[in-house]
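dumping this here before i forget
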Amino acid sequence: MKKIIYILGIESSCDDTAAAVLKNDEVLSNCIANQKIHQSYGGVVPELASRAHQANIIPVVQQALSIANIDKKHLSAIAYTRGPGLLGSLLVGSAFAKSLALSLGIPLIEVNHMQAHLLCHFIRNENKKAPSFPFLGVTLSGGHTQLVYVKSHFEMEEIGKTRDDSIGEAFDKCGKKMGLKYPSGPEIDRLAKKGNPDAFAFPVPKVDGLDLSYSGLKTAFINLVNKNINKNPNFIDENLDDLCASIQKTLVTVIMEKITKAKKKFNLNNVVIGGGVAANYEIRKILNQKAEENQWKIFLPPFQYTSDNAAMIGIVGYHKLLKQQLGKLNQSVNAKLPF
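structure:
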């Protein structure tokens, strides 16, 4: 008979305070407290984020335990995000996880946030099997854009990354230029559906190997907008949908070219996507087209696991506990934790 393991996952890498309870690889609860305060600043303010985590973490953990209908004394281990992320935010989650694990006398498990975005695909899903190893992992978020060769749950090699801005950061900065609210990615995605993706042409950066760049593309977009505003102050309002469709098409083209190149170079048929930008309609559409036309095996996360969440932290904790890869109470957080 399979042993029952209950994992409490805690995620606090940026501006979302999250807690989840897993029974083996099954999610019993997945709770998130969002921080709306950052919208008025057009981006996450680290000090405000860490203060909000302090206020949110106890209620969120209590909610996760309540929905899962278990008492904390039934927990087998606590998994938390060690990095990468904002230092102050990571410290709040780390301190709480360590204190609770120590008080309960149960194992503490540290988790790499970016690995978790890929391993969320191993959460039990009745509609789709987990990907088989090896596979090409692609993390797309506000802080990271990476291509990863994944040999096993914890054997991962970064084979390509952005040299400057992440794809999510590029979405947000282009959106800010158009006066869209933060985060701008979902709004650009929504407006792009009504626009012409060929209305404006932007250069696709040429970067050797599997690395990529978004800074020049972002600058080209801003320059185009500035040039046209000088001629027509209403340029953005009159062309908003087309601007969104055009920049989104180019942003997605950049990463798709690298995915195609990496897949061919390493002869990998399984392509596994993770991160907040994995919710983007255009990315999902093109990847699904690749699956139909070229027999790619595409793994897109359910929408509830695209943004930062604790269920993905919990599933990593579960697999680490099975292998007895435990953390330590004196282990410090790492804002730039590598793969």
